[in-house]
Amino acid sequence: MFHKLTDQVWFGDADAVYECRQQVKSVFNVAHTVRKKPGYWENMAHISSKVLYLRLAMQDREPWGEEYAEALVAAVDVVCNLGLFPLLTHCQMGGHRGPSAAILAAWHISGRRKAA
Question: Does position 114 have pLDDT exceeding 80, yes or no?
Answer without folding.
Answer: no
